[in-house]
Amino acid sequence: MEDPREICGPIAHIYRSHLAYMEKELEAYRIGSGQFNFLMVLYHRDGISQETLAKILKVSKATSTRALQSLEKEGYVYRQRDENDHRAYKVYLTEKGKEIRNVVLEKLISFVNTLLSDFTPEEKEIFRRLIQKAVFNLLEPGFEPPCPDRSDDMT
């Protein structure tokens, strides 16, 4: 590769655009750009520890605590002390958090559809495979990506 910025720059641009889009689209629901990713993980693994959430999303414990406190304040999640480790919390979706799932997914699908709007079906599949391959190169042992490898929620 001649210039790593040719890869890192576009990835960073997609990431920032994604955050800005989701923040704008979820503003009416009082879900910030740093919070919807927590919901996305919980939609696949409700009841995981706060520490595991932070590790999966690669954020600090302090960032995780702030995001979860905001989601808790808005009634989307609740935290409960872990029975086996009283210093730790497990995080669960509330009914309100479960009910907003389709809204969050619709916004996410809309973003992805815009991102891939001029891709052929074959290009979409190649892009999906390559991006997953790149993600797996960065995984820490024991932690899977916040989104499953193949999701029927996105086309």
Automatic annotation (TrEMBL):
One of its GO terms (molecular function) is DNA binding. Signal peptide: none annotated. Residues 1-136 form the HTH marR-type domain. Keywords: DNA-binding, Transcription, Transcription regulation. It comes from the Archaea. It holds the Pfam family MarR. The keyword Plastid does not apply. PANTHER family: MARR FAMILY REGULATORY PROTEIN, TRANSCRIPTIONAL REGULATOR, MARR. This is Transcriptional regulator, MarR family. It comes from Methanosarcina lacustris Z-7289.
